[in-house]
Design goal:
- By secondary structure, the protein is mainly α.
- It has a single domain, classed as Four Helix Bundle (Hemerythrin (Met), subunit A), CATH 1.20.120.450.
- 51% of the residues lie in helices and 4% in strands.
- Strands 1-2 form a two-stranded antiparallel sheet.
Length: 196
């Protein structure tokens, strides 16, 4: 773990990913909440509700207060309005250096050192920014440098994908695939996915 995180600050990476996701979610209109997404189990509204719940859950538990109810998604229409505030709530929690020394419970996945929890949120939010963008037919928003950092941090997590796990099975891509395509494939997404 320490070798992977030695020269990467997952909190600054995570802020970049949450800001990126905020830009995409800010483009969503209420009439689009029923749109499909690359996450087969969620439409766009359900994905936005998940994103707000993730921010609240990580923020609470990173602050040292285990609140399992914070992880429960609310109504999509409410989540769409509350998304920006949830981003700031998370940013405030991760800005406290104490989180680096704290163990953080992450939903049903377990308890992790603070830096690993921040890396988990970063990876999740980066690919969800792409999910939101593609659901509303916007171009890929992920910068190559963030994709490369996410690929490096992915070494922290097991490659095995249990049923019901965080991501679907790895999608095969060609040898010449770039960092963004490899990240999407690693997290179970078809880089060519389109809602049309």
């Amino acid at each position: 773990m320490t070798s992977v995180l030695r020269d990467l600050d997952p909190r600054s990476l995570d802020r970049a990913a949450t800001d990126l996701c905020l830009t995409q979610v800010s483009a969503v209109r209420p009439a689009q909440l029923s749109y499909p997404t690359p996450c087969d189990e969620w439409n766009l509204g359900e994905l936005v509700a998940h994103l707000v719940a993730e921010n609240r859950g990580f923020a609470s538990n990173a602050s040292g207060v285990v609140d399992r109810l914070a992880w429960q998604p609310g109504p999509p229409e409410v989540a769409l309005v509350e998304f920006p505030a949830s981003v700031e709530l998370l940013a405030k929690a991760f800005a406290d250096d104490e989180v680096l020394q704290r163990m953080v419970e992450v939903r049903e996945f377990g308890v992790f050192p603070g830096p690993v929890a921040a890396a988990m949120h970063f990876l999740d939010y980066l690919v969800h920014a792409w999910d939101v963008a593609r659901a509303i037919d916007l171009p890929n928003p992920i910068p190559v440098e963030l994709a490369a950092a996410a690929l490096r941090l992915s070494a922290l997590f097991p490659a095995a994908r249990p049923v019901g796990g965080a991501f679907a099975a790895v999608v095969p891509v060609g040898e010449g695939a770039g960092a963004v395509e490899r990240l999407l494939a690693l997290t179970g997404r078809d880089p060519e996915w389109s809602a049309r």
